Structure formats: structure tokens, C-alpha cells
């Protein structure tokens, strides 16, 4: 795979207003907070941030409201080197915003999300892309399921029409329990990342039975991250692999840990690491993320991750 080609992340970008508190607030009380910071958030946008911070060429595609926050989003993406030129700018609406309460006692994050009217991305928006630029497209499974289905099919058709070196790999994230069933999108993706909540919704009690059951059922590679327990993955024709979580010295902020895990896995998959090594890199990166506030310092762990990947490669050679 041409490592210089672009990874495209398709999904939501929003504003996160993170309020950092010493202890979780009581209702109808007043208290001082340690800090409040404004960040770019949204799951696909977070994954794009991490991929770009560890050295990938990245583009983000989603809808963006033409409100006062658009300038903040533009300059923030430009700071991280994330291309947003193909985003659909929507007039007369407000940017979705999440108020996130970060409890410094254990880094827990409570998310209060608001979105009044920003529309979801349509396949029509996606059709404007020149697919030749991309080696990988990551989709955030959102309520626009039918549109995502069309986008994925469009990529699959493209895949069938080009030479091997130009083919595009598809990954999918299913985070929330959504009223629409996202399940059948899994069949169109090469790799699917299921959240703990979604696994439970499918009646799985743990990450290993989830990846086993779902990869058997769909014949696809499935990943499942499970907070402090780490993560599991399975190829349809391989064994279940697991990784422990890597605890930072102090858990400061777990927002975006799942998105960071996904970025670590995509990065490693692009480098042809074994599935077990991929989830270990994902967990190491996500663990490091939990030890820092926000994502802005995630580039500081890039070197550690790259060294680890080199070690894995040396290990392969000794076999
Ligand atoms: N407290 C923690 N300490 C270390 N690593 C963590 C912690 N919480 C999450 N992680 C890492 O992040 C990954 C994703 O965690 P998860 O809870 O599924 O994320 P999210 O809540 O963002 O969906 C886990 O596989 C784990 O490697
Ligand atoms: C993004 O991921 C988090 C977990 O990491 C999840 O709780 C949240 O619902 C997701 N956000 C959206 C808008 O889907
Ligand atoms: C963090 O601590 C609070 C109590 O202070 C608890 O309710 C919550 O479950 C903890 N969260 C995590 C992720 O450990
Ligand atoms: C925002 O809300 C609208 C109206 O409820 C909904 O249709 C849409 O899916 C949401 N969009 C985003 C980007 O979350
Ligand atoms: C696209 O092609 C690549 C390379 O042959 C293959 O690995 C992948 O499964 C294809 N992806 C889709 C979604 O068709
Ligand atoms: C990964 O494997 C593919 C297919 O075998 C190959 O084309 C590509 O160069 C490899 N990439 C890396 C970074 O090793």
C-alpha cells in the first residue's frame, strides 16, 4: 500500500467544551471548575486528529455549519494538517456542540451533546470526491445509515474497477446504540470497530465473545475495545487476539480513547502488522491519550509507538 496516499475519515465534527472539575457537580449547586477548554471533537474528527499527529496524510469529510464556529474548526484542522476542503458547508444552522464534564478524580467524561438541525452527510456529497487520492476510508456509523451504505458501495465499485495498488480499504466504527440497525454495514467494510455499548446491545457480555460471534457471523475482521480491560480482535479465519490496556501514570481525560484506539489500529494495519500487534499499538496509543488532556499532545507519543512497531518488525524477522 502506498503509505503517502490519504486516509479519509467520514463522520461528525463538533465543538467540545470541556469543563474540568475536581469532583462531579451536584445539581442546583455552584462550584468553581479547574478549567474550561474549547476543542474540536466528534468521533471521526478525533480519529483524523490522531492519525495526522502520528504522521499520516489525512482528510476529514462531514457536514459543517456555517456559523461563527466554522472559523475555529477551519483553523484547528489546518493546525493539525487535516484537509477539510470537501466538507459540505450548511448555511443557516448551528454547529453541534458537546459540553463534556471531565472528573479529575478518575478522568471520567460525561457528555451532553446538542445538535438542533445540522444535516447528516449524503452520498451526493461523497460523490464529489476523487477516490484516486485515498488508500483508506474510515466511516463513523451514524443515523445516515442508508447514505453510508451507498457511499460504501460506491467505494466497492471503484475497488472493482482499479488495479490492486489503487484499491481502497474500508473501516467502520459503530459506537452508539442507535435506533437504526447499523449491523448490515459490517458486511461492506473490511474492518469494523464495535464499542462496548454496541456489543452489549448485541447481547455480548465481553469483548472476546463479541469478536468471535461477530466475525463468525459476518465473515469479517472485528475489533472490540473494552475500556480498562483493553481490546480484542478476530479475523474470520484466525484466532481471537487480545491486548491489555496500558494505564498511564495518571488518568486525566478518557474522551476520545476509543477514537484513538481506532487510529492506532488503522495506522498499524497500513503497516501490515499482525492483528495482535495492531490492537496492542491501539491500546498503547489510547492509554497514552488517557494520560493527557485533550489530543493536542498526542504527537509526543509518536516516537514511542514507532519504536514499538520497529521492535515488532524485528520480532517477525527472528521467526
Ligand atoms: N482508564 C484507562 N486506562 C488505560 N487505557 C484506557 C482506559 N480507558 C480506555 N483505555 C484504552 O482506550 C481503549 C478504548 O476504550 P473505550 O472505553 O472503549 O473508549 P471510549 O469510551 O472512548 O469508546 C481501550 O481499549 C483501552 O486500551
Ligand atoms: C463518540 O464516541 C463516544 C465514545 O467514545 C460515544 O459515547 C459517543 O456517543 C460517540 N459520539 C457520537 C456523536 O456518536
Ligand atoms: C469515576 O468516579 C465516579 C465517582 O467519583 C464514579 O461514579 C465513576 O463511575 C468513575 N468513573 C470511572 C470511569 O471509573
Ligand atoms: C442533528 O439533528 C438532526 C435533527 O434532529 C438530525 O436529523 C441529524 O441527524 C443530526 N445531525 C448530526 C450531525 O448529528
Ligand atoms: C478493496 O480492495 C482491497 C485490495 O484488494 C481489498 O483488500 C478490500 O477488501 C477491498 N475493499 C472493499 C471494501 O471492497
Ligand atoms: C503491506 O503489504 C502490501 C501487500 O502485500 C504491500 O504492497 C505494501 O507495500 C506493504 N506495506 C508496508 C508499509 O509494508
UniProtKB/TrEMBL annotation:
GO terms for molecular function: ketohexokinase activity. This is Carbohydrate kinase PfkB domain-containing protein. It holds the Pfam family PfkB. InterPro entries: Ketohexokinase-related, KHK, PfkB_dom, Ribokinase-like. Residues 5-292 form the Carbohydrate kinase PfkB domain. It comes from the Eukaryota. One of its GO terms (biological process) is fructose metabolic process.
Amino acid at each position: 500500500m502506498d503509505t503517502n496516499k490519504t486516509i479519509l475519515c467520514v463522520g461528525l465534527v463538533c465543538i467540545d467544551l470541556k469543563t474540568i472539575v475536581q469532583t462531579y457537580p451536584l445539581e442546583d449547586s455552584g462550584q468553581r471548575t479547574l478549567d474550561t477548554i474549547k476543542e474540536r471533537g466528534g468521533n471521526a474528527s478525533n480519529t483524523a486528529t490522531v492519525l495526522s499527529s502520528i504522521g499520516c496524510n489525512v482528510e476529514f469529510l462531514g457536514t459543517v455549519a456555517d456559523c461563527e464556529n466554522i472559523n475555529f474548526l477551519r483553523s484547528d484542522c489546518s493546525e493539525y494538517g487535516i484537509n477539510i476542503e470537501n466538507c459540505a458547508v450548511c448555511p443557516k444552522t448551528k454547529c453541534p456542540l458537546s459540553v463534556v464534564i471531565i472528573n479529575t478524580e478518575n478522568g471520567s467524561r460525561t457528555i451532553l451533546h446538542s445538535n438542533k438541525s445540522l444535516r447528516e452527510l449524503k452520498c451526493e456529497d461523497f460523490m464529489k470526491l476523487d477516490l484516486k487520492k485515498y488508500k483508506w476510508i474510515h466511516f463513523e456509523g451514524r443515523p445516515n445509515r442508508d447514505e453510508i451504505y451507498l457511499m460504501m458501495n460506491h467505494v466497492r465499485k471503484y475497488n472493482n474497477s482499479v488495479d490492486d495498488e489503487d484499491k481502497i480499504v474500508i473501516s467502520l466504527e459503530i459506537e452508539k446504540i442507535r435506533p437504526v440497525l447499523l449491523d448490515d454495514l459490517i458486511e461492506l467494510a473490511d474492518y469494523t470497530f464495535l464499542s462496548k455499548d454496541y456489543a452489549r446491545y448485541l447481547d455480548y457480555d465481553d469483548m472476546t465473545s463479541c469478536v468471535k460471534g461477530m466475525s463468525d457471523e459476518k465473515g469479517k475482521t472485528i475489533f472490540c475495545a473494552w475500556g480498562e480491560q483493553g481490546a480484542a480482535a478476530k479475523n474470520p479465519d484466525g484466532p481471537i487476539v487480545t491486548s491489555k490496556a496500558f494505564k498511564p501514570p495518571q488518568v486525566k481525560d478518557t474522551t476520545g480513547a476509543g477514537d484513538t484506539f481506532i487510529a492506532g489500529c488503522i495506522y498499524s494495519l497500513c503497516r501490515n502488522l499482525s492483528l495482535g500487534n495492531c490492537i496492542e499499538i491501539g491500546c498503547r496509543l489510547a492509554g497514552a491519550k488517557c494520560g493527557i488532556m485533550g489530543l493536542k499532545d498526542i504527537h509526543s507519543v509518536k516516537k514511542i509507538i514507532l519504536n514499538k512497531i520497529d521492535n515488532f518488525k524485528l520480532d517477525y524477522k527472528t521467526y
